[in-house]
Write a structure and sequence with these properties.
5 helices; mainly alpha; 97 residues
Length: 97
């Protein structure tokens, strides 16, 4: 589904996101290899998916995100919600959380 979405929606929607919360790290890695190009954001104390019966964790920080991207040979680029580059000051704040 992610691969087809990437083909069909490009260039109107250039970024297809995989949810590590729903798929787990292993599933997210597989979907990155199958067409997705966005891992979504880091979360702390995620509760919505868990309340619905999800079992893939509540936290996924910047270090884990970088390690997962590296494991599938993908570059890491931190972006805003509008996919603009994040300023160095914003990156510092995020890293310290």
């Amino acid at each position: 589904m992610h691969a087809i979405a990437r083909i069909v929606l490009h260039p109107l929607i250039p970024n297809i996101q995989v949810s590590w919360v729903k798929m787990g790290p292993e599933g997210a890695a597989a979907i990155l290899n199958a067409g997705a190009n966005d891992m979504g954001g880091t979360l702390m104390d995620e509760s919505i998916t868990r309340a619905a019966g999800g079992v893939n964790g509540q936290e996924f920080g910047p270090t884990q995100m970088r390690a997962l991207a590296a494991s599938v040979g993908r570059p890491v680029r931190q972006r805003t919600t509008l996919y603009d580059p994040v300023s160095p000051r914003q990156t510092h704040i995020t890293e310290s959380l």
